[in-house]
Design a protein that fits this description.
The protein has about 200 residues and is α+β, with helices and mostly antiparallel strands. It has 2 domains: about 80 residues, DNA Methylphosphotriester Repair Domain (3-Layer(aba) Sandwich); about 110 residues, Homeodomain-like (Arc Repressor Mutant, subunit A), CATH 1.10.10. It has a 5-stranded mixed β-sheet with strand order 1-4-2-3-5. The longest helix is centred in the last third of the chain and has 19 residues. It is elongated. InterPro entries: Ada-like_dom_sf, Ada_DNA_repair_Zn-bd, Homeodomain-like_sf, HTH_AraC, HTH_AraC-typ_CS, Me-P-triester_DNA_alkyl-Trfase.
């Protein structure tokens, strides 16, 4: 396998490398590393994480190149034994939630995106931030809902959909649990400018 090292350069993924990545082929470990632009993480070809989109993949022949380009080592496959510090890992997961709070995110989805196990993510997130990933996402969603309630006259259905909580009874229940008020009461109390 080492014969391929000379023909490969850092850059975009070729078909052989792509096949190694999607098949988690450990025979290619050490020949190249792949980094994923959308997550900021780099892995070994054998990594069991969810396959990335091909257009987001960048190839590096050495782990240090990926590090120099700002990519962080995967928590799951630990390329060359490197490990992303917990605080940095949680910062990346937090940033992902901040940018995708309106998506249908679960602990498993977040763990997959962050290249870790759900159990490890839950435990580490709580250790670093004091709350679980789902509690954090709920805070982001409710804060966004408050913003919409005060600055727009959108109906609850639209606000719920915009923050990733399309189930309106659930949205109202969570909102009241967090704020002590229903969304309607909150809008009225905060002096919605359009009413």
């Amino acid at each position: 396998m080492k014969v391929y090292l000379n023909k490969w350069r850092s850059g975009t993924v070729n078909n052989e490398q792509w096949q190694a990545i999607i098949q988690n082929d450990k025979n290619y470990d050490g020949l190249f590393y792949y980094a994923v632009k959308s997550t900021g993480i780099f892995c070994r070809p054998s990594c069991k994480s969810r396959p990335p989109k091909k257009e987001n993949v960048r190839i590096y022949t050495e782990a240090k190149e990926a590090l120099e380009q700002g990519f962080r080592p995967c928590k799951r496959c630990k390329p060359t034994g490197l490990r992303l510090p917990d605080e940095e890992w949680i910062t990346q997961i937090k940033a992902y939630i901040d940018n995708h709070y309106n998506d249908s995110l679960t602990l498993h989805t977040l763990a997959d995106i962050g290249h870790g196990s759900p159990y490890h993510l839950q435990r580490t997130f709580k250790k670093v931030l004091g709350i679980s990933p789902m509690e954090y996402m709920q805070q982001i969603r409710i804060n966004k809902a408050k913003e919409y309630l005060v600055t727009t006259n959108k109906p609850l259905v639209e606000i719920g959909a915009a923050i990733g909580m399309a189930n309106i009874p659930y949205f109202i229940t969570v909102f009241k649990k967090v704020t002590g008020l229903t969304p309607f009461q909150y809008r009225k109390k905060e002096g919605h400018p359009h009413e």
